[in-house]
Design brief:
This protein has 713 residues and is an alpha/beta fold. Helices cover 29% and strands 18% of the residues. Bound molecules: ligand MGD (2 copies), iron/sulfur cluster and molybdenum atom. The site of one ligand MGD has 37 residues, from helix 17, strand 17 and strand 23.
Length: 713
């Protein structure tokens, strides 16, 4: 491969920072600043800067592994490994029916991989049992966005709008740790005279930057948002004209909010009435304002209603679908947005189509060259799928996730995974989940292959191949092709699984044409030339890949510019109006009691990424964040007699985890916090509650009842 710099994007989070990569003669890869990508303007966090370390073959799987007679994983040829996977999946299917085969994907996979995986499940395996880790991520915001606006795109505007608005309420988001280069959008907002309100039970490094920090009890954001809406009404701050012209359902939402008196909300949330009033004043004072949510309010068993309540606040005050105003969700994984649009979600087909919609089934079946009736219906959500392993689901193909560390009630999930008849894992490293597999397939990753991702802004990006992969690995697309050849050659199915990412993207364009997430006007060439294109971007009418009448907004044949800003004229609902959500406060699935008197919440630290499968292998990151910890308030620590660094045990109804105490006044005395990046004794997810949101099926990662005990060091 050439020795010049290749412009590409980071493998990790949804900011998808631009970077240049240059392979050096000694086999290492140098990261240099890529100033032409506007989102990060060259800035990278430590994870992005050190990402090439994980390209090194020393840390990598470079040969397929198969479970041998004595139970160990031993190297095998690609042919043998793929034969074994095909046989393992086929055996479950023959013995127990197509739904006995499960597929689990990831929001880090490129659009091409996510698309091919969804197609593989439905066309080759004929199973309905596919879902992915994005269900654990922003599914509640997605559900609420669909209900309110008729469309779910993380941010309906580019990040560059943030510093130009008047006020931002950032709810349960900690970009200082989770998207450091994005922090500047909020500091610039304040430098421009705008105000920043942070809602987080912890005084995080992000909260330290705020004009106002509200620290609610975990799991009470729904009540908080209702209390703010109550004050908006009581203080006469409703934008009546906007509500009349651009929304529906206000009367019911208003009545619900009026039942949430500020004093009542103060009792539930612990946020004082004067603070509530101050927040309303700050939010309503300027011309334009935004509410942005992340995992704090979303990863709750009422996350959909909670986000709905924050959207209600935007709608009542006329702050959605107007310049520099709106509600947005900060998606998480590198392709958290695109990963949910193209068919690895249990209920979706490419282009954000619904699997239950007959017209959608017809369209996609035609692109795939199959009978619409052959497509299975919706399957189980991620946790429910993992919970069914070893019972209804006998074999699993896993690509791009490490649920042994990252799934809720992880000890149970691990036990379910161990009870499978057959597990195949595609990964770049031997993750904790891959270590349990019958066959491990070593795959290429970001800088070794070309593909597209869709960032938190809805900007579709081209991630270019910059280095040669190590000997012995194949791409996920090659794996799917090889399995299709083994399981569907009699039906000629392998032809539907090209290994060239651009060929997959060309098909994805056609499959998405006319859908909500329409990519049909996007090509690799445009992505390279334009530094990304915001969807929807329909193809010109009559063009290859276009749907009839797809050139909405442009004259026939004109190239669609893409859509950086949504909803300015109308929302994507049938009548063009945004819908208020009729929501009321409800408690978390588990509230403290005598046995479990405290609340546990979980999240992230800057130097580790997710299950840590990749970042725990990078020396510099490990030195910065070597292991798990339990954040607790000095009063709680004193009661336990625990000093800084002493091991403490956190116990929930699901299990017990032990990690060193980190004592800080930055957390509420009734709450403890653990990051979830580590396996073993300090695994936070041993404790978490898999209670699901009824609509999004999101588990309640952000709140469960625990007690904390001191442990003999
Ligand atoms: N360093 C790093 N960066 C990452 C990732 C990573 O693993 N590591 N992962 C990426 C991914 S996939 C995601 S989804 C994003 C997540 O990005 P964020 O949502 O910013 O991350 P979290 O730390 O999960 O949660 C954010 C905050 O929610 C707060 N919180 C906890 N409970 C509640 C609650 O009940 N209400 C409210 N309002 N807040 C609460 C926590 O204290 C925490 O500070 O980060 C992305 N970036
Ligand atoms: N307690 C608690 N738990 C949580 C959360 C929380 O806030 N609290 N957050 C949840 C959220 S938001 C998320 S997104 C999940 C994430 O949790 P996971 O789904 O476990 O995410 P990762 O650790 O990123 O796992 C990705 C795996 O895919 C591998 N990989 C990387 N690139 C590729 C590729 O191109 N192909 C293949 N085949 N594999 C690849 C990596 O090596 C890694 O093993 O965790 C969830 N779990
Ligand atoms: S902020 Fe996210 S995309 Fe940017 S360098 Fe860090 S991990 Fe990569
Ligand atoms: Mo996520």
């Amino acid at each position: 491969m050439q020795n010049s710099a290749t412009p590409t994007h980071c493998p990790y989070c949804a900011l998808q920072c631009g970077m240049n990569l240059t392979p050096a003669a000694d086999g290492t890869v140098e990261v240099t600043e890529r100033a032409d990508f506007p989102v990060n303007r060259g800035a990278l966090c430590g994870k992005g800067r050190t990402a090439p370390a994980v390209l090194s073959s020393r840390l990598r799987l470079t040969s397929p592994l198969v479970r041998s007679g004595d139970g160990t994983l031993v190297p095998a040829s690609w042919d043998e490994a793929l034969d074994r996977v095909a046989a393992g999946l086929a055996r479950a299917r023959t013995g127990h029916g197509p739904d006995a085969v499960g597929v689990f994907g990831g929001g880090g996979l490129t659009n091409e991989k996510a698309y091919a995986l969804g197609k593989f499940a439905r066309v080759v395996l004929g199973t309905s049992q596919i879902d992915y880790n994005g269900r654990f991520c922003m599914s509640s915001a997605a559900a609420a966005g669909m209900q309110a606006f008729g469309l779910d795109r993380g941010l309906p505007f580019p990040l560059e709008d943030v510093p130009r608005t008047g006020c931002v309420i950032l709810v349960g988001s900690n970009p200082a740790e989770t998207m450091p280069p994005a922090l500047r959008y909020f500091t610039e907002l304040r430098a421009n005279g705008g105000t920043l309100i942070i809602v987080d039970p912890r005084r995080t490094r992000t909260a330290e930057q705020a004009d106002l920090h509200l620290a609610p009890r975990p799991g009470t954001d729904l009540a908080l948002a209702l209390g703010l809406l109550h004050l908006v009404v009581a203080e006469g701050r409703v934008d009546e004209e906007y509500v009349r012209e651009r929304t529906s359902g206000w009367e019911e939402a208003r009545a619900a909010a009026m039942a949430h008196w500020p004093e009542y909300v103060e009792r539930i949330t612990g946020v004082s009435v004067p603070q509530l009033r101050e927040a309303v004043r700050m939010f309503c004072a300027p011309q334009a304002a935004m509410v942005l949510t992340a995992r704090g309010p979303e990863q709750q068993s009422k996350g959909t209603d909670t986000v709905g309540a924050w959207i209600n606040l935007c709608l009542a005050t006329g702050r959605a679908g107007r310049p520099l105003s709106g509600y947005g969700c900060l998606t998480g994984q590198g392709n958290g947005q695109g990963g949910r649009e193209h068919g690895q979600k249990a209920d979706q087909l490419p282009g954000y189509r619904r699997l239950t919609d007959p017209a959608a089934r017809r369209h996609v079946a035609e692109v795939w060259g199959v009978d619409p009736d052959s497509l299975p219906g919706p399957g189980r959500s991620a946790y429910e799928l993992l919970d069914a392993l070893g019972t209804d689901i006998r074999a699993l193909l896993l690509m791009g996730s490490n649920p042994v560390v990252s799934a809720p009630r992880a000890a149970h999930v691990e036990e379910r995974i161990r009870s499978l008849d057959f597990l195949a894992v595609c990964d770049v490293v031997l993750s904790e989940t891959a270590a349990l597999a019958d066959v491990v397939l070593p795959v290429t990753q970001w800088a070794e292959e070309t593909g597209t991702t869709t960032s938190l802004e809805g900007r579709v990006l081209l991630r270019r191949r910059a280095v040669t992969p190590p000997e012995g690995v194949r791409s996920d697309l090659q794996v799917l092709h090889g399995l299709a050849a083994r399981l569907g050659a009699d039906r000629g199915l392998e032809k539907g699984f090209p290994t060239d990412p651009e060929a997959v993207f060309e098909e994805l364009r056609r499959a998405s044409a006319g859908g909500l997430a329409d990519y049909s006007g996007i090509t690799y060439r445009r992505l390279a030339e334009e530094n990304g294109v915001f969807w929807p971007c329909p193809a010109p009418a009559g063009a290859d890949g276009g749907a009839p009448g797809a050139a909405a907004g442009g004259e026939a044949g004109a190239v669609h510019p893409g859509t950086p800003r949504l909803f300015l004229d109308r929302f994507a609902t049938e009548d063009g109006r945004a819908r208020f959500a009729p929501v009321a406060h409800r408690a978390a699935a588990e509230e403290p009691d005598e046995e479990y008197p405290l609340l546990l919440t979980t999240g992230r630290v800057v130097a580790q990424y997710q299950s840590g499968a990749q970042t725990r292998r990078v020396a510099e990151l490990n030195a910065a964040a070597p292991g798990p910890f339990v954040e607790l308030h000095p009063r709680l620590a004193a009661r336990l007699g625990a000093a800084e660094g002493d091991p403490v045990a956190v116990v929930s109804r699901r299990g017990r985890a032990v990690a060193p105490a980190r004592i800080t006044g930055a957390i509420r005395p009734d709450t403890v916090f653990m990051p979830f990046h580590w396996p073993g004794e300090g695994r936070a997810n041993t404790l978490t509650n898999p209670a699901l949101d009824p609509t999004s099926r999101m588990p309640e990662f952000k709140v469960c009842a625990v007690r904390v005990e001191s442990v003999e060091p």
